[in-house]
Each structure stands twice: as structure tokens, then as C-alpha cells.
Amino acid sequence: MEVVDIAVDFEDYFPSMVESMGAEGFIMELCNGFRLLMDVERGLITFESLKRNSVVLGLNELRDDEIVGMLSEGDLDGDGALNQVEFCILMFRLSPGLMYNNASKHWVDEYI
């Protein structure tokens, strides 16, 4: 089996969003993202809601195992879905610019 290295360019926009929107505005924007992806009846991001909304986001080629992996990455309580706090924590963990910025650590504690 041939192993192929794939380089992915990743630009972390979260630090500049925090700078321009402020901490409270950024958290509100994360909450808007959560509401976009969640199952309205359950108030959680579920496998079904993430799969359905991934098409809207242009990620329609995601496999089921990738969606499960995304959910399990942030599922802190083990219920198989993401609540709003788990989603926000996951977004922070996925942003190197926020994770390694001392100023952001302070307001993460304040807002999350």
C-alpha cells in the first residue's frame, strides 16, 4: 500500500476574529455556528444534523466515519452529540492561535 503525504494549508482566523469582534462577539458567533449545525428538536449537534448540514457547508463528501470522528473529538460527556459548551471548547481546541495565546485563556474561562 502506497502512503501519500498530503499537505494541507490551514489558516487560523479565530485570533483575528477575536481581535475585531471582541471576546463576547466571538463567543456569540460560535453560538451562531452551533445553532446552524444543531438538531433543533434536541438542541444538540447530532450525527444526523451534522451530516445534513455538512452538505450546506459544502462538505458533502464527508464519510460517516469522519462525521462520527468529528463528534467524538468534542463529545466530553459521552452522549454521542455535542452541546453548545462542548462545541465551543472543541472550536478553541482546534485553533492553535487561541490555544497558545495567554490573553485568550483568560476570557475563555470567563465566557465558557
UniProtKB/TrEMBL annotation:
Residue span, EF-hand domain: 42-93
Pfam families: EF-hand_8
Cross-referenced InterPro entries: EF-hand-dom_pair (IPR011992), EF_Hand_1_Ca_BS (IPR018247), EF_hand_dom (IPR002048), KIC/PBP1/KRP1 (IPR044205)
Superkingdom per UniProt: Eukaryota
Keywords linked to the UniProt accession: Calcium
SUPFAM superfamilies for this protein: EF-hand (SSF47473)
Coiled coil segments of this chain: none
Keyword flag Chaperone: no
GO MF entries: calcium ion binding
Protein known as: EF-hand domain-containing protein
Species of origin: Gossypium gossypioides (Mexican cotton)
